[in-house]
Amino acid sequence: MRWLTETFAVLALNLRTIPARLSSSAVAVVGIAGVVVVFVSVLSIAAGFSAAMQGSGRPSRALVMRSGADSEMTSGLDGNAVDIIKQAPGIRRDGQAPLASAELYVIIDLPKKASPDKPANVPLRGVEPAGPSVRDELSIVQGRMFEFGTNEVIVGRGARGQFVGLEVGDTIASGQNRWNVVGVFEADGSVSETEIWTDARALQGAYRRGNTFQSLVAQLDSAADFTVFRDWLTANPQLNVQIRRENEYYAGQSQALTTLIRAIGYAIAGLMGIGAVFGAILTMYTAVATRAREIATLRALGFNTTSVLVSVLGESMALGALGGAIGGAVAYLGFNGYQTSTMNFQTFSQVAFAFRVTPGLLLTGLAYALAMGLIGGLFPAIRAARLPIPTALREL
Amino acid sequence: MKFLPLVWKNVWRRKFRTTFTLLSIFIAFLLFGILMTIRTAFSFGVEIAGLDRLVLIHKVSLIMPLPRAYQSQLQQVPGVDIVTHQSWFNGIYQDPQNFFANIAVEPEPFLKIYPEFVVPPDQLKAWLADRQGAIVGKDLAERFGWKIGDRVPLTGTIYQPKSGQSWEFNVSGIYDGADGVDKTQFFFRYDYLSENSQFGDGQVGWYVVKIADPARSVELSRTFDGMFANSSAETKTTTEKGFVEGFASQVGDIGAIMIAISSTVLFMFGLVAASTMAQSVRERTSELAVLKTLGFSGGTVLALVFAESMFIAVAGGGLGLLVAWLIVQAGDPTGGLLPIFILQPRYLLLGAALMIGMGLIAGVMPAVGAMRLRITDALRRN
Fold first, then answer.
1. Quick one: CA dihedral B216, B110, B113, B250, positive or negative?
2. Chain A: closest CA distance from residue B125 (Å)
3. The complex's ipTM?
């Protein structure tokens, strides 16, 4: 108990005297804050991208593609196969009609708002009439749904934000085709929001695809029915297809890029962290050096060695916490919700997403900041505790 | 020069502090080197992309094929040197995680247009003689331990073979190239693709045209696009450099992010250096006053302090850049995701300039303070 009071007394003294050592303490705080800003903001890119990709899939939906295809882009299914697939057990039915949509997936060049002179690959998806009801998260937020059998399209909210010429009423000229934008849709911030949707039949005509599709999305009765659905299709000798749960498909597509961003983020923040620890060591070393006499006096008065040690650590962790809080706040205010887009390398198409500074990331950043403060304070603290009292009192 | 020992002594008067300051600056420039390497990697080789090479893609998008018949039409345009086509095959080697670029090309015109890919003559001969032959980049061969003569199966994602499940290739040669050349690609023969594909031929991915005079690139681009206007496959022609830039911008502005992080890092550690210098000079106020009493001019004192901060910045920074360079020599740590993994000489120069700048900025306040120091005040302060 006495030990605790002592420790708090010394710690309070240390903290109260920080203003006297302002510039040196600021160096440690700025250093740690810088590391936290970089750490949190780089990882918020990975968090945003993977949220957009993983939020796109539901375990209760199945995606059918040609066996061997690595994405919808490279897949192909002919009309007969599509008819057979729609007979499969496990698909939810609305009356007699199966909740399944055979789709086409192509990309068209549109200028990015951020760099209007350079084209970006925007995905254009052709869906069957069941397409919107298969994806129950989809809702029209402006204008109306396109009419099947026409060259009307609806655009995702993310696509409208990132690319030029996607407002309701605009006409998209792509090669010799003209697409009229009649509505804007939302889909829980998922990757669909970067897409443009139209009638699959219209797209077949425009791209001379005959009666072929690329993939089929089916709403299953329940997530558990996936096995029945898959086994029926793979056992059918007329089909040469692979079946994946939609969420697993999108998670797989986001994996490489997310891993790369995370690795870069951890490597950079790790190295910066080492540098910031050096900065903190310098700061705390100075703090101990300038107060050598005070510390020696306290110890001469009978204060416990560990109280001195803990109080120095406490001070450096307080600086760490301050740095972590500032860094987290800057990252949150500066980057949370920042809209951008990148390329999904599996389909070469654009994915719009927003940086996500999650509470988890902020906590990790803060923990990292405290760790830097702790390590930075350790050696100076040991030094303070070991200071030979007579020499220190004689100093200066 | 005769004051160097004095500067040296001053630098190391507090070994602990100097060591940690040096280490901080070391880390700063190590990071700078690595960040600039990442920046280069995400520009996808735009620096070496040719201005005398034009790329023709389908106007709607890169993924749409173009008719093979365009080749002979393009060849007849005056000012055109060589025309060749390429097709993105997108084959998978064993596991989708093993991604690398695999592209069908016409061997001879391909190597003429891209002299940066260097293939030994006997290996080239072997490639021309073997329809299933392929040449692979040195880095790619190392990654999977391929040797010449190895058989490599790729699973087709876009193209299905007439029989069997996968496409079989023989490694005919291993190409090399200067720094900055992507040595992770896999090139095989288009004639094999077109004959062995279920969907027949007549289509190619895109055209690459080498023109005689780079100054005519804009004019020729217009000519080409005009030739195929109003056809079912309209084209869009850009220089290779423009094409690569467009691709890089689709990935996002990684360059800007790297510069932002570098600036944060340099600011952070510059602050550490500046604060150390300020403190070190403050501690020595009376010493400096003594120096001045002995007859050292203000200018000399200024130079002494600057020399000290410059030493710390350049020694720490130089070591950091050196280590960054050594790390980069070891190659891409991601195993193929960043094919162009080099620390360009221009960033080494920029780094050197930044070190000197950091030394100057960190030293300026304390040095000027030391120069202006009035002996009487300084001695009285104690």
1. positive
2. 33
3. 0.83
